[in-house]
Design brief:
globular, about 150 residues, Alpha-D-Glucose-1,6-Bisphosphate, Chain A, domain 4, 3 helices, alpha+beta
Length: about 150
């Protein structure tokens, strides 16, 4: 049986360097609820979407203007049974120049149709990559999840 990891791609009217810079600006397209660093190999960052999703990513491969790979080192997805379904997944961005444009291929290795999170997570990634990251690269402004303001009693 062949496992099919989630994949999507965008083609943008920008340079590979511009796409690379935008991918690493995680708060500009994914979520403003980020702690840590997301710029160079070895950096780690965590993201939160309320009490529904927490994940920690380590940049394991960074090739300027060509590739960025995150390893999910910890996850807590509170809307599914296997709350750690993302742990040890790899998230890859591969950047290539193509006919005076730039193509960004996104793959989450481990996010497969057999997984409980696949439908919700693949739909979310489609929006973040095809709309928010695309907009950040082409228009200078993405649509990340807004910063949560925590109110303590």
């Amino acid at each position: 049986m062949t496992t099919s990891n989630y994949r999507t791609s965008i083609t943008v009217d920008a340079t590979p360097h511009e796409a690379f810079e935008c991918i690493n600006n995680v708060t500009g397209w994914w979520t403003e609820n980020l702690e840590g660093e997301s710029q160079k190999q070895g950096d780690e960052f965590s993201v939160r979407f309320g009490d529904v999703h927490y994940s920690n990513q380590r940049l394991t491969e960074v090739i300027p203007d060509k590739k960025v790979v995150w390893l999910v080192t910890d996850s807590r997805l509170n809307f599914i049974k296997d709350k750690e379904e993302w742990t040890n997944n790899r998230i890859e961005f591969v950047i290539t120049a193509e006919n005076n444009k730039t193509r960004v291929n996104f793959t989450q290795i481990g996010l497969v149709p057999e997984g409980e999170c696949y439908d919700a997570c693949s739909n979310a990634w489609s929006q973040y990559i095809q709309q928010s990251l695309y907009s950040l690269i082409t228009k200078g402004k993405g649509m990340p999840e807004k910063k949560e303001v925590r109110v303590y009693p």
